[in-house]
């Protein structure tokens, strides 16, 4: 355990967890020392799981001031190592992060694209949070893939592939590793201060210098309103700037699932298709907006048009796919698995059963409720329901219709992949209600709401 700082108190005063817990419960503002004490106790194990849960709930209900958020983020960075990379890479260390959604496989697609464009992408990613899928859980559906890389493996990945995707570990942002796990099961995820400290601490610890955060807004996002998305964006940008990272935020819609499927292995297959250039329009739009912003921020490209061309070129010429394969190789996947995965052969676990859900009306799709779909995926086993839940990589859904599409009575709009022989009537019913159909024409909205910077 590393000491965060030398915490000094008045003579005779002994700081303890109950003291700080009570302070936040009663609406007090933490000092920097109290926050450091809390974060140290997460790492040295002197705080119990119930106290962590109580503290998170107190923070969630009482909130944190801006200063507390900065102090918490900084203490979380110093809870483990801070990665340092070659000086010659300082101008090109860049990353993206998402606040989480349904069907969001963008990190798996974008990291190798950015690497192929000349950036170095040291990505520390997350697991599923509540009903939202986690990039690490998706990647772990690839046989042999490791997500707990040590520093030597990360260095090798940046040299050979230009990117890696790893987890917070006992040595890298361990405080986030614990808080993330407990937030997931204590209904304390959707809080701006906790989201900011979680995301920015990982990015600062990873040594990244430029960041684009995809803040999801909508029905299935942690930010239900644009107002909350903007408030989160403001704090992400300010807190990261204080800690030396230049950040832009893209607000994007999360009302319907992103892309053609949700579920761990299914999303990896879709990500591989995206790297061949076969992307749904929504994925293509998000990949371009996030990628273009990073390429311009880092001066790899002079302007947006040049950046867009470069992204299209690295996909078309196969160099993005090559970076993806190299990343998998450094992260432990054997060459045969990589070759077969890229060739579209079945190397990932697939569910034994599928059930088609037909439309019960004719018209234009006016809504596909990503929240219901996310909850069904969680129920099927794609996300954790308790800290000890095992993820089932094979389950999920394929979404065949999106908002604005025409649909006829009886058309299959969703296919569910499940591992038990039958789908419960309750799940079937809720999925039937997840689509809304209008008898007048509906136009899909742009998935991007706004790009926000300082
Ligand atoms: N992603 C994170 O890393 N943390 C959060 O709190 C939410 C999304």
Features:
454 residues, 4-stranded mixed beta sheet, 4-stranded antiparallel beta sheet, 13 strands, globular
Give the arrangement of secondary structure elements.
Elements: H1 17-25, H2 32-44, H3 49-62, H4 66-77, E1 94-98, H5 106-116, E2 121-125, H6 135-139, H7 151-160, E3 163-167, H8 174-185, H9 192-205, E4 210-217, H10 226-242, E5 246-253, E6 261-262, H11 264-275, H12 281-297, H13 304-316, H14 319-330, H15 335-342, E7 353-358, E8 363-368, H16 370-380, E9 396-399, E10 406-407, E11 412-418, H17 425-432, E12 435-438, E13 448-452
Helix pairs in contact: 1-3, 2-4, 2-8, 4-9, 5-11, 5-12, 5-14, 7-14, 9-10, 12-13, 14-15
Question: What is shown here, in short?
Answer:
The protein has 454 residues and is an alpha/beta fold.
Describe the overall structure.
This protein has 17 helices and 13 strands. The mean pLDDT is 95. By secondary structure, it is of the alpha/beta class. Uracil (URA) binds at residues 99-100, 126, 129, 194-195, 198-199.
Order of helices and strands: HHHHEHEHHEHHEHEEHHHHHEEHEEEHEE
% residues in beta strands: 5-15%
Helix content percent band:
40-55%
Gyration radius from CA atoms, angstroms: 22 Å
Low-confidence stretches: none
Rounded mean pLDDT score: 95
Major beta sheet, specifics?
Answer: 4 strands, mixed
Distance between the termini: 36 Å
Helix segment count? 17
| Strand tally | 13
Ions, cofactors and other bound molecules: uracil
Taken from the alpha-carbon principal axes, the silhouette is globular
Name the structural class. alpha/beta
């Amino acid at each position: 355990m590393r000491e965060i700082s030398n915490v000094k108190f008045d003579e005779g005063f002994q700081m303890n967890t109950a003291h700080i817990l009570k302070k936040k419960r009663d609406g007090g503002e933490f000092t920097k020392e109290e926050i450091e004490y809390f974060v140290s106790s997460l790492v040295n194990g002197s705080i119990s799981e119930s106290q962590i849960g109580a503290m998170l709930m107190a923070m969630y209900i009482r909130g944190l001031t801006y200063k507390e958020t900065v102090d918490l983020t900084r203490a979380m960075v110093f809870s483990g190592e801070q990665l340092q990379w070659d000086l010659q890479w300082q101008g090109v260390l860049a990353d993206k992060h998402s606040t989480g959604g349904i069907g969001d496989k963008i990190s798996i697609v974008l990291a190798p694209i950015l690497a192929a464009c000349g950036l170095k992408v040291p990505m520390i990613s997350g697991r599923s949070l509540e009903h939202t899928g986690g990039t690490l859980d998706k990647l772990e559906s690839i046989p042999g893939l490791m997500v707990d890389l040590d520093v030597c493996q990360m260095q090798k990945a940046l040299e050979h592939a230009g990117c890696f995707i790893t987890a917070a570990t006992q040595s890298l942002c361990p405080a986030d590793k614990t808080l993330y796990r407990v937030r997931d099961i204590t209904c304390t995820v959707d809080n701006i201060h906790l989201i900011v400290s979680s995301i920015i601490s990982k990015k600062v610890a990873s040594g990244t210098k430029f960041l684009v955060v995809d803040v999801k807004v909508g029905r299935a996002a942690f930010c239900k309103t644009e107002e909350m998305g903007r408030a989160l964006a403001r704090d992400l940008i300010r807190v990261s700037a204080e800690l030396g990272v230049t950040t832009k935020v893209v607000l994007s819609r999360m009302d319907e699932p992103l892309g053609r499927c949700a579920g761990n292995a299914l999303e990896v297959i879709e990500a591989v298709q995206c790297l061949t250039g076969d992307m749904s329009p929504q994925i293509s739009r998000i990949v371009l907006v996030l990628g273009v912003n990073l390429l311009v921020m880092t001066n790899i490209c002079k302007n947006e048009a040049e950046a867009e061309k470069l992204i299209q070129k690295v996909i078309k010429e196969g160099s993005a796919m090559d970076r993806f394969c190299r990343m998998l190789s450094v992260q432990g996947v054997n060459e045969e698995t990589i070759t077969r995965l890229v060739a579209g052969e079945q190397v990932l676990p697939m569910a034994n059963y599928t059930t088609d859900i037909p439309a019960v009306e004719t018209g234009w799709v006016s809504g596909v409720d990503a929240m219901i779909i996310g909850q069904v995926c969680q129920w099927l086993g794609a996300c954790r329901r308790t800290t000890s839940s095992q993820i089932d990589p094979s389950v999920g859904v394929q979404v065949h219709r999106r908002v604005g599409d025409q649909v006829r009575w009886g058309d299959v709009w969703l296919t569910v992949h499940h591992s038990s022989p039958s789908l419960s009537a309750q799940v079937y019913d809720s999925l039937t209600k997840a689509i809304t159909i209008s008898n007048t024409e509906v136009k899909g909205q742009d998935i991007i709401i706004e790009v926000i910077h300082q």
